[in-house]
Each structure stands twice: as structure tokens, then as C-alpha cells.
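Let's do one together. I've listed all components of the complex below, 503 residues spread over two lines.
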Amino acid sequence: MIVENLRVRRGSFVLYVPRLEVGRGECLVVLGPSGAGKTTLLKSLAGLLRVESGRILIDGMDVSRLPPEQRGFAYVPQSYALFPHMKVWDNIAYGLRARGMDRARIEEKVRSVAKVLGIEDLLDRYPHQLSAGQRQRVAIARAIVVEPRVLLLDEPLANIDPSMRSRARNFLRSLLTKLDVAVVYATHSLVDAVSMGDRIAYVVDGKLAFLGNVEQFLSTDYAKPYLEEIEIVAKYLRTRT
Amino acid sequence: MARNLNPFFVANLVISTILVLFILIPLVSLFLYTNPDTLRELFTGYTASEVLNAFETTFKASLLSTLLLLAFGLPLAYTLARHSFPGKKVLESIIDIPFVLPHTVAGVAILTGFGSRSIFGEPLERIGLVVQDSFWGIVAAMMFVSAPVLIDSAKVAFQSIDPELEEVARCLGASPVRVFATITLPLALRGIVAGTILAWARALSEVGAILVVAYYPKTINVLVLEYLNVYGLSYAIALSTILTLVSIALFTALRMVLGGGS
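Okay, and this is what the predicted structure of the assembly comes out as:
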């Protein structure tokens, strides 16, 4: 996916991204404080917000004027937005049914993705019967089962209990490395950014202030607000190497 | 228990009891003062066909007005709940006007707008939709007064749904129609059902606008007024008792069926 000169207006707030590229199998982390425009960027890519100007290219084709259902992007919001009146099975099958897939194929794909995410025993439950961690897995299962061209994750760890976050982060990281899909991952946490991302796009006040790898980011002034987290990041990097 | 018996709780209880009695006493009195002979006479004497026709007209017109309101009101309620556009506040105020308008005035307004000598009345008459003293006039009067009840209830029901559910469904490949049918409507159903029941109740109880627009064919409410004037209170009580019983039975059944037994 290539994003060029993307401009989105929401009231007085303007988001402008001159250029972004995410390759298949790559995870680009959009890092920034609350209100920086991370969710606006993700929703614009998904087609949920009208783009004022610019292009969103997928395999060379501009999809910026296509409605969300025709883009092939899967979006997982911070709230997970599981359909509360449907069981986990039906939540995961929703996108497959929308594509008119036959019942046997849906059954096969739902079982398969549930196995990958370790939620096979939750398929008969309703969302309100799940923990935050389980809801996160279901939301990701529902998103990846449709084999999207781009997976958009908005603060997927924010609702996880701090004591469980490290485990959830590790699980998500190992899952994302297995997926052959372009991932855009929005977060305000440097720890999450370092854990998940191949590259960091730092957004502040609606502007793309930095684009590069983790080490480069840590040497910039933008990393200063994250000083508290840097020690944890350093520890993480030591364990990774 | 002792904790509940504080002066504030007792004062609330007394005040609440007064209001509940205020509602209950007239209803119970209807049943207590109903003369069984008058009741029998209503359905066996020369008034029988008139009474039965009035019941039929009332229920058919109220049902039709509610169905029409559902068909036209749900898209409007959804638009108001989900979209911002210039003049939205004005539109919402217009929808709520029937709430504050005296019902006889509503009747005069309907006649002025859709009566045979009005701009819209003439083309409507050409396709058989005569408003003055007709079944369609009753439907129009019922729709007019109960429209805000259904539209406002449905709007609140739609507003209560997290828009992210619809957004995620769109991203998963569902068209706007499919999202509405599989996500929005099922989640808003309870509120819509409640609004529909209230709108039907409002239509069923309408008399002021109907008296002005379409005295004929007589609805049961018009007949209650007529019997009160012509035959006296005894006949009006008997008719009112039947209407009350039928209404309570229907609304209870509807609430149980549509509201999942709750």
C-alpha cells in the first residue's frame, strides 16, 4: 500500500500525510499522542472518512474513492466492536457471509482461524461473556479470516489488563509475523511500537513528523516524551537480540 | 428494610401512591360502573353493527397508520440519528410539532393541507385518497399525531448503537443495506418495538383530530363521545370499558410477543 499526499479534514483538525508505504508482510506502526490523528489516518485508509485529497494505492490501483466494503481493508477499532447480538462464530463468519461464501467453506475457515488464535472453545459464546484479551483475539480473527489486503489495528492492546498486556503483545507479535498482509498498527505506546513494528511513523497534530526504524526514532527529540518507556524498550531490545 | 423507611422514602412513597391512585381510580371506576345490561344491549340491539364497525375502523386505521409510519419513519429516524446536515435541528423541531399542537388544530391543519380544495388534496383525490370524512382521513389524523412518538423512539434506538459496529461491518465487506439489516436493525429492534407500540397506542386513542377530519366512518372514540351526548354516561361507560379491555389485552400481547416476553 502506498499513501500519497493524503489530506483529511475533521472540523478544524487536518491530517496530512505526504507519503507512506507498507509492504505485504510488513507492520508499520503509527505512533503518536492522543488526538494526534492516528485513528483519523486508519479510518481514512479504511474508507470510513472522506479524503479531501491524495491517493491510496493498492498494487498500483487508487482505492481512495472506493467505499469501505470494496477496499479489502480490515479494521479493528480500539473497542474491538464485536457484534453484541452474535456469537463469536457468527462474528468471525460475518465477513465471509457478506462475500457470499458457501456454508462449508465458511465453517472450514472459521474453525481454521479460531485454531490459529486459540479461541476454538469460545465459538459458542457471546461477546459479553469474553474477557478483554479474548475479545481482542476474536476481533483479530474476524478481521484476518477475510484475508484482507491491509489490516488496520487501532490500539489493540489498550483495553487489555496491564498484567496481561505483555502476554497479549507477544501473542499478537508472533501472529503478525506469520500473516502475509500489510499491517498498519496505531498506538500511543512506544513499547507496543517497538514490539510490533518494522518501522515507525510518528504523527503529531495531524502531521507525519517522522518515518523510519526504531533506532532512528529513539535518537530524535520526538522520543523524549517516551523517556519513561525507553528503559523498558531497551530491556526489550536486549532480550530480542 | 429499616433503612428504606427514612422520611424521604416515606414522602416519595406517599406522593407516588397519590399519582398511581389518580391513574387507577378512573380505570377501575369504568369497570365498576359498567352496567352489564347496557353492555349486552350494545352488542345485541340496534347499535350492534355500529359498534362493531367502529371497532373495526379504529383498529384497521390505527394498524395501517402505524405500519405506514414504520415504513416512512424508520429511514427518517436513521437519517437523523446518523447524519449531520444543514437544517437538521429545524427538521427535528418540525417532527415534534404534533406533540405540542392541540389535536383539533392538527385536524384543521390536515384538512387545510390535504382536504379536497387544497393543492395536495386534489391529486390525492384523483388516486382515491379522499381525506375528508373517509377512512384515509382517519389514517392521516392518526399518523400525524403519532409520528413524533415513533420517529423519536427509533432515533434514540439508532443513536444508542455504537457507529463503530457499522463501520467494522462495512470494512468486512457488507453493503450499507446489509449492515442496516444485520447489525443496525437487530440492535435497535427493542427501541423500535417500544416506539411502535407507543405510536399505535397514540393512534388508537386519538379523537380530537379525527373529529375534525373524518367524523365518518365513526371510530370507537367518536362513538363514545356521540353515545355520551345522545344516550348518556351509561352507554359511554360500557363502550369505554370494552375499548380499555381490548387495548390492554392487545398491547400486553404485543409487548410479550415483540419484546421477548419481558
